[in-house]
Amino acid sequence: MTADAVAHVDTDRLDANLRSFHGRAAAAGVPVRAHIKGHRTVEIARRQIAAGARGIAVHHAREVRRYAGAGIRDIVVAHPWEDPWRWELFARSAADCRLTLHVASAEAVAGLGRAAARRSTPLGVLLDLRAGPDGHPPAPSEVLALARAVQDRPWLRLRGVTGYRGLDTAADAEHRHTIGAEYAAFLVGTAGLLRSHGLPCATVSVGGTPTAAGALGVDGVTEVCAGAYALQDVGLAAIGVCTEEQVALSVSGPREAADLVGEYGYAWLAADDTARRSGNRWLPAHVCPVVQRVRALLPERERPDEPAEWTVLATGDKETDVIT
């Protein structure tokens, strides 16, 4: 984002969004796992925990260390990384919290198992069942084989299954509740398959703010993992997840800021349906890419115990981070 662009957070809207989303989940008896990709700040993560989140989800080992250092102890790495050098980073990070990793291959199971054994540190595993390049999730036989491979590794702990079903078209967005419910039912059914073969599967975690309402209505779902609900955006308002009056993030600055805020929309948005003007600011089409491109978020009504700006951490891991 341009150096002159400033990202603002309306904390009244933020807190209202947290109360609303967590309240609906609590009414359904399903805990929330807050994905920090929707804000990338310690301050909002703490607000989410205070609102009832059972823990957070992150993308990188650097984020694990940052949020564990801030006192958050239940952390999931919500991406099935396949890079061998990363496995040592995750095993090292597991000393600081209850860490669980998404895993989608036997190679990752073996590599993580060796790294955990070298550190004598247990690592939790969620089998990531999102669709592969062919558009289909793994077959039941593949899931069973992967679960057994986890069980065979002494320092790995099979905690359950997870997955995310994105919305690829405007038609998908129109049927987001049905898509969320159907995908949640698939994960619940797969968990039942594992249990029927004597394999532990305590967690059934369904990802996504747009499809969360559908997933919450499915018996057997044990958590919903979502990120964009905290700040919301124009893309979610376009499909009825929120209203534009609930969008808590805005960007001020030159005209170029509007182009950048609207550059990364959702698949269901039309090409000309991106950022929105709100007074002298712009509301983002999609909040997650925007927060990756700013240095900090400025709360409009900060608390006495919080800093005047909330530092964004959007840098990924590097192979040079590995300590042998």
Overview in brief:
The protein has 324 residues and is of the alpha/beta class.
Q: Which SSEs are present, and which pair or pack?
A:
Layout: E1 6-9, H1 11-27, E2 32-35, H2 42-50, E3 55-58, H3 61-69, E4 74-77, H4 84-93, E5 98-103, H5 106-119, E6 123-128, H6 140-151, E7 156-164, H7 170-174, H8 176-196, E8 203-207, H9 212-216, E9 223-226, H10 234-238, E10 249-252, H11 255-261, E11 276-278, E12 281-283, H12 287-291, E13 296-299, E14 310-311
Helix pairs in contact: 4-5, 5-6
Main traits of this protein?
eight-stranded parallel β-barrel; 12 helices; four-stranded mixed β-sheet; single chain; alpha/beta; 14 strands; 324 residues; 37% helix
Spans of 5+ residues with little confidence (pLDDT < 50)? none
Amount of beta strand: 15-25%
Q: How many helices does DSSP assign? A: 12
Shape: globular
Tell me roughly what share of residues is in helical segments: 25-40%
What is the radius of gyration computed over CA atoms, rounded to a whole number of angstroms? Answer: 20 Å
Structural class, by secondary structure, is alpha/beta
Explain what you see.
Helices cover 37% and strands 19% of the residues. By secondary structure, the protein is an alpha/beta fold. Strands 2-3-4-5-6-7-8-9 form an eight-stranded parallel barrel, surrounded by seven helices. Strands 10-1-13-14 form a four-stranded mixed sheet. Strand 2, helix 2 and strand 3 form a beta-alpha-beta unit. Helix 4 (84-93) crosses helix 5 and helix 5 (106-119) packs parallel to helix 6 (140-151). The longest helix is centred in the middle third of the chain and has 21 residues, at 176-196. The radius of gyration is 20 Å and the shape is globular. The model has no long low-confidence stretch (mean pLDDT 92).
